Amino acid sequence: MMRVILAQPRGFCAGVVRAIDTVERALEKYGEPVYVRHEIVHNKHVVETLKNKGARFVEELNEVPEGAVTVFSAHGVPLAVVKEAADRGLPVLDATCPLVSKVHMQGKRYVSQGRRLILIGHAGHPEVEGTMGQVGAPVELVQSEKDVDKLAIPVETPVAYVTQTTLSIDDTRGIINALKKRFTDIVGPETSDICYATQNRQTAVRDLCKVADVILVVGAQNSSNSNRLREIGLEEGVPSYLIADAGDLDPAWLKGKERVGLTAGASAPESLVENVIAALRKIDDVEVSGMDGIKEHIEFRLPAALRN
């Protein structure tokens, strides 16, 4: 008998729900096709489902025909993209997560106060590229405490920091401490401003590690928050694997393991978790239970053009 223990919370966050709903409502209201710049969220199953409904995914706006309804992904976009869409008169629905938009506003506020802005995040991530292109001033990106040492900013310069939303308080603590040691005049957002969903899912995995022999994280390889959940399992000393879906499951991982911890990244639908459980049932008899954890009740309003 294999015990499968489900993390609470897991899977979709409010920002992802809002982004997917934005595309689906746009298709209902305007008909297909609706163009989406970049993957709406980092999950190929979500993207394929929306493609089948009439969404078309592009990397750049020059791939969008004149006058076509255009959606910006949950990760946010640089101001140059906003301007390009406006110059072309494209009807835009902005599905940027409100917590990402909040980071953009914080960054702009710090820059308006005359501070040099430092962004803690992963190079190349679409959210990071969006934030760096939103504040209208140079932004220094740091990914580690070592990067703080390399910053070519005099120590007395007034600076401020913001963070990528898919990083938790735990992820950024060391870097923030290094920044505060280095700079004499530094400000940043309250820790209560970080993404609730990132923190909750990471806390849930730490709890799961106390009772599981192996951890399975359902999520995409290019999903920052899903990768971090797997890393946390490994940090806690539990073998942990990131799987896109049930097809990635390797029965060898489960040999001699009685308690399987199962969670999902913020852009992974619950249907994928259910499919993994079904695949586990083919390997052994399964008993499913859930952890007690935070119940999330946060909802974000859709873009104004789609509200009933």
Account of the protein in words:
The protein has 308 residues and is α/β, with parallel strands linked by helices. It folds into 3 domains: 2-12 and 196-290, Cobalt-precorrin-4 Transmethylase, domain 1 (3-Layer(aba) Sandwich); 14-98, Rossmann fold (3-Layer(aba) Sandwich), CATH 3.40.50.11270; 99-193, 3-Layer(aba) Sandwich (Cobalt-precorrin-4 Transmethylase, domain 1), CATH 3.40.1010. Helix content is 38%, strand content 18%. The chain has 10 helices and 13 strands. The protein has helices at 14-30, 44-53, 79-87, 98-112, 126-132, 145-150, 169-182, 196-209, 224-235, 270-281; strands at 2-6, 34-37, 55-58, 70-72, 92-94, 116-120, 139-142, 159-163, 186-187, 214-218, 240-243, 259-264, 286-290. The strands form 3 sheets. Strands 11-10-12-1-13 form a 5-stranded parallel sheet, sandwiched between helices. The N and C termini lie far apart (49 Å). 42% of the residues are buried.
Explain briefly what this protein structure is:
With 308 residues, the chain is of the alpha/beta class.
Notable characteristics:
single chain, 308 residues, Cobalt-precorrin-4 Transmethylase, domain 1, Rossmann fold, five-stranded parallel β-sheet, four-stranded parallel β-sheet, 10 helices, flat
Secondary structure layout:
Layout (H helix, E strand, L loop, with lengths): L1 E5 L7 H17 L3 E4 L6 H10 L1 E4 L11 E3 L6 H9 L4 E3 L3 H15 L3 E5 L5 H7 L6 E4 L2 H6 L8 E5 L5 H14 L3 E2 L8 H14 L4 E5 L5 H12 L4 E4 L15 E6 L5 H12 L4 E5 L18
Parallel strand pairs: 1-12, 1-13, 2-3, 2-4, 4-5, 6-7, 6-8, 8-9, 10-11, 10-12
Helix pairs in contact: 8-9
